[in-house]
Amino acid sequence: GVVNLSPGWFEVGHDICHGPDDTLCESASLKLANMAKGGHAWLTAIGESAALLSSVLRVIHPNLYAMARRSMNEMFTHENLADVLQMWMSVFNGVSVICNWETPVHRDNYSSSEWYDMLTTIGPYESAIFELPGVGLRFRYPSGTVIGLCGRVLRHGVLEARGERICLAYYMRKNVQDRLTTSMASWNSRNAYI
User: Fold this and answer.
1) For the residues of 54-79, what is the DSSP string, one character each?
2) For the chain, how many structural domains are there in total?
3) In which residue ranges of the chain is pLDDT below 50?
4) Which of 77, 100, 108, 176 is 20 to 30 A off residue 19, Cα-Cα?
5) How far is CA 115 from CA 33, 50, 182, in A?
6) Position 76 in a domain
């Protein structure tokens, strides 16, 4: 199945930001997980990996990383988010935990075209294939693979694998960025590295 976690986004049915009074809150699944204390333990356990993926973003899209850091800092000003943000070690404002799931080819519609999503896959499995059909590419997708891609632009999916597989798909939701006062990151360019 799939579980979506976020330290701060809008409740279901409130996906559009109308202004600075719109309240950000923990994702429902994270609230439920926190009630059982499993969410806190899980966030602590993946903290180092989440920070590492954030560091990868800093290298491959420095402006997006800077925007995301400013946004996380601004989220700390929301008192209702402070507890979960203490454990959230990623600059991304959302993560989907996808377990043993064939992911149909899709685009990530809640993001922005210019932004990268980070995908990583782990587990004892075989034969997973990552597809980018719009550009005619297919890749082996072994455990430990990390992929950064513009998920709103590039249609992507994963064929079923044999064994136990977990994908962590880190992303940023545009409506959350619209709610915060940080400026939006644009397309990455080689000038970011000069």
Assistant:
1) HHHHHHH-HHHHHHHHHHHHHHTTSG
2) 1
3) 12-20, 35
4) 108
5) 28, 17, 15
6) yes
